[in-house]
Amino acid sequence: MAGAFWAKSLVEIGDPVLELRYYLSNYVMGCASRNPDFPPGLFGLPVTDDDPKWAGDYHLNYNHQAPFYGLYAGNHIEQADTFEQPILDYMDRGKAYAKELLKIRGVYYPVGIGAKGIETSMRPGKPRAGYENGGCFLGQKSNAAYCLVNMSMRWYATYDVGYARKVYPFVLEVVNFWEDYLKFEPTSPSDDKTSEALRRPGNGRYVIYNDSTYENMSGVLDFNPIVSLGLVRNALELATEMSTALGVDKDRHEKWQHILKNLSQFPTFVKDGVTVFRLSEKGNEWNEGSVGIEHIYPAGAIDQNSDPKLVEIGLNTIRAMSWWNHNGATTGFYPAAVRLGFEPATILEKLKELIAIYHLPNGFVCCLEDSSTVPNTINEMLCMGHHDVLRVFPVWPKDKDARFLNLRVWGAFLVSSELKGGVVKYVKIHSEKGRPCNLVNPWPGKAIDVYRDGKKVDTLKGERVVLKTEAGVTLVLGQKGAGVPAAP
Prior knowledge:
By secondary structure, the chain is α+β, with helices and mostly antiparallel strands. Helix content is 34%, strand content 19%. It is built from 14 helices and 21 strands. The chain has helices at residues 2-6, 16-32, 69-73, 77-80, 85-89, 91-102, 143-158, 161-181, 226-246, 253-262, 308-321, 330-340, 344-358, 373-382; strands at 10-12, 58-59, 112-113, 131-132, 135-136, 183-186, 204-207, 223-225, 268-271, 274-277, 280-282, 383-386, 389-392, 402-409, 413-420, 423-431, 437-440, 448-452, 455-460, 464-467, 473-479. Strands 1-14-15-16-21-18-19 form a 7-stranded antiparallel beta sheet. Helix 7 crosses helix 9, helix 11 runs antiparallel to helix 12 and helix 12 (330-340) packs parallel to helix 14. The chain starts with a helix and ends in a 9-residue tail after the last strand. Mean pLDDT is 91; it is low at 190-201.
């Protein structure tokens, strides 16, 4: 069994410190994520206290999701598939909360839940700030939507219709919630209360009221929190994809696309002379923590394919936050930096500092969530396949040799490649579903020879190329004229 786990993928990056932590982190998750009904809680399996902090539960505003991030690209789908069962088991209670507390459809999840539909954060007796009907919501409306980031990673990495059929009822209830909770408000070019970046031509925009960016015990709620704006986009895109694959709810696509087209833009403001993302349009403005970039990762709303202005604002925000060496929430900060193309040497340097400061010899940090920081960051640096665009060594020092085997990316592709002497030696792509593969040319300015079973079948040119693939077929790419690549 152990051999099968390690055979799923491989990375070699010539750095013993980072490689050890990469594999040690995967080992921790391999040990902890085995029971599909009882995934690991905040502290994983080795809990040595009868009363661990936060009941050791599933915190849904990133903590439960984060440990699994690196498993999808690392091709450890079996371990990743322990994530969602508590989420699905809680649906009846989530529906009841939405109906009773907010008078809307869908599911309304508290901050923390347990297995088998258990409510871990109930506080009976005298009402407390942040609790509604005994449930601990802390002003947040986004917890159920946050659960979809993992489901979207799993879906886009495999395009497994059986998985879609399993989780789509929950996906749909999350969308039902936001269809009802969002408000469509008229806007005008003369509205000086809204920045130019937030105005939209036409009749109006969708906005979010009374939704805390952070766990908020004070009762002060935010307007258009940036995390929720990213999570709603992800939810609607995922629902559209899954419903199409399942052949259901196509009559709802028009509404979903209208929301996506008219959803409020991500709020920004000027800090220390540069434009950065703001935590909310009104309410919380700034915090050094990573919440202000979670619309980038894990919500996936911005990457190197996005409007260059948004990418620039994102990079400004990464620099201003500088959340590199902290115990917690690095799981989103580092991958967000990679998605935007931040300086690769800096990312690797900061990862090593983080390991030296916080990571324990047994693979743990504070909570299980940080198990994904190193492997997920390295995977994205070596092979990024987001929004149907595949890049090999996209954010990797060109003078640092590295290779990887069978990293899994958007489109249900397993990708292998090697960088040596500053040159990509080959790209090997195994297609599980036969989807087209949109590839950024690893050899800029050069043509690409495509091989199948050792025989050249095509030559492609351009900064980006589209590979036609077949399910179960492996293609090997090399620079034109270099001969058949020696791919493993």
